[in-house]
Amino acid sequence: MSKSSAFATLPGALPGLMMDRPLLVTPLLEFAAQYHGDTEIISRSVEGPIHRITYAGLWTRTQKLAHTLVALGIKPGDRVATLAWNHWRHIELYFAVAGIGAICHTINPRLSGDQMKYIIDHAEDKLLFFDLTFADAVAANCKGSPSLKARIALSDAAHKPANPVLADVLMYEDLLAAQPDLYDFPEFDENTAASLCYTSGTTGHPKGVLYSHRALTLHSYAVCTTATMGLSVHDRALPVVPMFHVNAWGLPYAAPMSGCSLVMPGAKLDGPSLFDLMDTENVTCSQGVPTVWMGLLAAMRDKGRKPKALTRVLVGGAAVSEMLIDAFEKEFGVEVNHAWGMTEMTPLGVVNTLKPRFLKQTRAEQMPQKLKQGRAIFGVDLRIVDEDGKALPHDGKSAGHLQVRGPWIVKQYLKGGESPLTADGWFDTGDIATLDPDGYMQITDRAKDVIKSGGEWISSVDLENAALGHPKIAQAAVIGMPHEKWLERPLLICVANGPDKPTLDEVNEYLVSKVPKWWLPDAIAFVEAIPLGATGKIQKTKLREQFKDFAFKSTP
Q1: pTM of the full predicted structure?
Q2: Which domains does the chain have, with CATH numbers?
Q3: What is the dihedral of CA 84, 85, 87, 91, to 10 degrees?
Q4: Residue 348 forms beta bridges with which residues?
Q5: What is the model's pLDDT at position 448?
Q6: CA torsion, ordered 383, 384, 386, 391, to nearest 10 deg
């Protein structure tokens, strides 16, 4: 048991006589280098060419990077930011930063400039490593932060950014070249922080979720089990989910634990690019949001076949449709597994694998079960409660607030003040769900009105507040409406400030500097009045009923 455990020893209990070895993440990569040293990590580089390296080679470079970080003044507890795609250099940062006792802070490049500045300052990042793709964003938004000591471009001197604002940028490959190949990584308490992600799935400022070495290691064990992703030495996994999005669902840690090969897509996440990379590199499994699979499905239909080695895909971030499941499984023989989790859950919570008795059913009988988010995995406790906090039965019918707990569930946000946990130690996910007798969870609604678009959260309240700044808008409300490609997109509902109603283009031109571009509403509607409740809150249930027949224009 960890030295910092809050649990008391039972009176009269006999301690086990096992070694006390800390669960740290960097030994995962060391293990892969020792026992799977010839297994490849293949990356589509930002510079263009396909890059290949083995776990053994990656381990050597990670040790060189550790020396680099120390030379740049990084100490235990310091935050080191990344603004990068999925590739081998980003993996090196994951392990080298955590290995010296510092914290790898992955930044979502889809954030607005103000949000990016906020989280860099809030995290007190000391260094920022960035891909060339994001050079302009770094120049515009990552200068002047009091804690930031240096910015490092993830490339070599031949590709140094030309922007004069980035004249002082250091180049990653040049820094590594000057360092020795071996680094003696220290051992320390497994509850030390290793990784930091910010969630914007709530209103207000993004919140920092600080993952411990222990949580990430235990989560990796869970990811490798056959009840979840079933990773093994025989797999070649392509995580389409970005490494800046909850650590690519834990794949960069779980793959070296299992000896699984990684195929990293870089910035090219469109269907044809994914198909070609999967086909060329014999990818067996892949993980991403439904929008990604819709793009890949179009590419498969265009070619009349699946990528030759692909056997299964994991779908998370948003609900998967029956159409998508049927298309992959019936047309192309690729198994689809639903999954659900949160940034606050590291993120894995449930995965939908069918129990044996469901496999005896017809496909039509199975489908209602397959459409559920899935069954809890060991390490995650689930419960649903009513408004008074009373536990509800797991009958598949009773819907309540979904709450979770476990060794990789958040207990406090970074600099968060008040605990987000209930009085008895559970985290409320903000979702409304059912649990059936077989343990399958299904989300039926959201307690908060955030919008899920292509697997990413959009805060309706933040978008409303931004829209209210437009001089031609008196009142504003935002609701999520079904969309054929992104599954859900924001509809902006307004009361005009006078007879001159703004167009959607006018409003979005105003909003583009206030919120991330992908938050911009796809449609605008005007009403005489927005329904308000007794306390002045917008009654979105009434708006959803009012606009129930609304449909976005079809994508050409």
Answers
A1: 0.84
A2: 39-267 (3.40.50.12780), 358-446 (2.30.38.10), 450-546 (3.30.300.30)
A3: 50
A4: 341
A5: 65
A6: -40
